[in-house]
Design goal:
Strand order of the largest sheet: 8-7-6-9-10-11-12
GO molecular function: phosphoglycerate dehydrogenase activity
Distance between the termini: 28 Å
InterPro entries: ACT-like_dom_sf, ACT_dom, ASB_dom_sf, D-isomer_2_OHA_DH_cat_dom, D-isomer_DH_CS, D-isomer_DH_CS1, D-isomer_DH_NAD-bd, NAD(P)-bd_dom_sf
Oligomer: single chain
Largest sheet: 7 strands, parallel
Domain ACT: 467-539
Keywords: Amino-acid biosynthesis, NAD, Oxidoreductase, Serine biosynthesis
Strand content: 15-25%
Function: Catalyzes the reversible oxidation of 3-phospho-D-glycerate to 3-phosphonooxypyruvate, the first step of the phosphorylated L-serine biosynthesis pathway. Also catalyzes the reversible oxidation of 2-hydroxyglutarate to 2-oxoglutarate.
Length: 539
């Protein structure tokens, strides 16, 4: 990212619209190299805020202020929006990006508080502490009704092993618990290094005595714990959610508790908040807090400090540590590489949907004319497509490389002027513990993006819409049988591309289809003779 940095004589107006601790904004107040003018004015209506932003360069908020498109468009001098916290739902990212405004947040500032709250909730759940306190407060000395269980030697299942999940595991091991964890990017080496067992979602929920969720809320993780998962859990399992409402199906959790399958639940988050009249709160086995995971003095100070330091770094160096959106890049660079942005992202997205193990290494090769450009933005787009399936929309062009490296993915870029028959060719390869997958694409003059190679098979596929990726043995009738099976499910084929390595060897089919397919549909096709693998891809 390139931007004009401020000189010591330029006044930089920093407007703080939500209450922040003085300790949190102390870095701004003590900065001497920059001419920062810190303005604190909280509790404003949108129109009042708009009236004060004409000459503001930085807007700093927490969650109360909604930074809408109207506000962004009114702030003509705005260069940066800081969110003292993790989520940026209250900021119109599209509008900010459109106007070349950087948005930064503080993704690490509440990690410790969230992990501590999770352990506190788990311990309170195990020992019935809130229920026993309420009983005593009501004048009842009842020891028999609140016999708990120890954490020692119990198994904690952690679903989502990012920053917070990892910190929870550290603390659980301090309680001498066994930990089994699932994360799409958790490798065996990383699990061994942290002293935990790696498992699938099903393996985690089957083995655990306590289950704590720490995934982002994505289409893939919504209702991650549902009646099917409760059915395969141990009897008497206990559930903790201090992450996001919606990861656990609340109706199914209620039924599982009433039926005795789940011994209890500790909830800090709900699908709809405030949740003061939720039916789960009527169950004596449930304890709850009103979304307090990050509500500590230290966390609120830490996120403000992180954002304050990013503001200073931005005006001194033109870079930031925790960007949320894509910053402006020089027009001459943008003109060169922008046509390839979508292609690179879709190549990464394709591989994210065919790879089943944690990715250890990504190799991106640029061949032909594109190799003469600064391809770093293209690599970021490819990584963005690769990560978004499991990490959500907060992964973007700016932070994709940082997030990849943080979870242990090695990234390699290669350039060559030889494109083997193409003017430009981008090839993305991923390596896991047991798999290697690759896909290549190009831009055809007047025809747009094309996937031209999958693994070692030559194809010609438009990377958009619903695709079926099928591996099969090159035997007569394979294509016809697939088409027949899909017809039986009323799934219409729009286009079909096939490729093979040799006669009678392995082959692939790439089908563009008009309908959504279910897992049952995929299994239905996979049962055919000579069909080795069937995967649904959405681009």
């Amino acid at each position: 990212m390139v931007t004009k940095t401020a000189t010591t004589t330029d006044e930089i107006n920093v407007f703080i619209a939500d209450p922040l601790s003085e300790d949190g904004i102390f870095p701004l107040r003590q900065e001497t190299e920059l001419n920062l003018n810190v303005i604190v004015d909280t509790g404003l209506t949108p129109q009042q805020l708009i009236s004060k932003l004409a000459d503001v360069h930085v807007l700093l908020v927490r969650s109360q202020t909604k930074v809408t498109r109207e506000i962004i468009e009114a702030a003509k001098s705005l260069k940066l929006i800081g969110r003292a916290g993790v989520g940026v739902d209250n900021i119109d990212l599209a509008a900010a990006t459109e106007h070349g405004i950087i948005v930064v947040n503080a993704p690490d500032g509440n990690t410790n508080s969230a992990a501590e709250h999770t352990i506190a909730m788990m311990t309170s759940l195990a020992r019935h502490i809130p229920q026993a306190y309420n009983s005593l407060k009501n004048g009842i000395w009842d020891r028999k009704s609140y016999v708990g269980v120890e954490l020692k030697n119990k198994t904690l299942g952690v679903l989502g092993f990012g920053r917070i999940g990892t910190e929870v595991a550290y603390r659980a091991k301090g309680q001498r618990m066994n930990v089994i964890a699932y994360d799409p990017f958790l490798t065996e080496e990383r699990a061994k290094e942290l002293g935990v067992t790696k498992g699938t979602v099903d393996e985690v929920v089957q083995a655990a005595d306590f289950i704590s969720v720490h995934t982002p809320l994505l289409p893939e993780t919504r209702n991650l714990l549902n009646k099917e998962k409760f059915a395969i859990m141990k009897d008497g399992v206990r559930i903790i959610n201090c992450a996001r409402g919606g990861i656990i199906n609340e109706d199914d959790l209620y039924d599982a508790i009433v039926e005795g399958k789940v011994a209890g639940a500790a909830l800090d988050v709900f699908v709809e908040e405030p949740a003061t009249d939720h039916k789960l709160l009527n169950l004596p086995q449930v304890i709850a807090t009103p979304h307090l995971g990050a509500s500590t003095i230290e966390a609120q100070e830490s996120v403000a400090v992180d954002v304050s330091n990013d503001i200073i770094k931005f005006f001194k160096t033109g870079t930031v540590t925790n960007p949320v959106n894509m910053p402006s890049i020089p027009k001459e660079l943008l003109a060169q590489v922008e046509p390839f942005f979508e292609l690179a992202e879709k190549l990464g997205s394709f591989l994210s949907q065919v790879t089943t193990e944690a990715i250890k290494e990504v190799n991106i090769s640029y061949a032909g004319e594109v190799a003469n450009y600064d391809v770093r933005p293209l690599t970021s787009n490819g990584l963005k497509g690769l990560l978004q399936k499991n990490h959500g929309d907060h992964v973007n062009d700016v932070n994709a490389r940082y997030l990849s490296e943080r979870i242990g993915i090695k990234i390699n870029e290669h350039k060559t002027t030889t494109a083997k028959g193409f003017t430009n060719l981008i090839t993305v390869e991923v390596k896991t513990e047991h798999e290697v997958h690759s896909v290549a694409g190009t831009l055809l003059n007047g025809l747009g993006a094309r996937i031209v190679k999958v693994e070692n098979y030559v194809v010609d596929v438009i990377p958009e819409g619903r695709l079926l990726y099928i591996k099969n043995t090159d035997k007569p009738g394979a294509i016809g049988r697939v088409a027949t099976k899909l017809a039986e499910k009323n799934i219409n084929i729009a286009t079909m591309q096939v490729g093979r390595d040799q006669i009678g060897g392995t082959a692939v089919m790439m089908l563009t289809i008009d309908n959504d397919v279910t897992e049952f549909d995929l299994q239905y096709v996979a049962q055919l003779e000579n069909i080795d693998e069937v995967k649904a891809i959405t681009l």
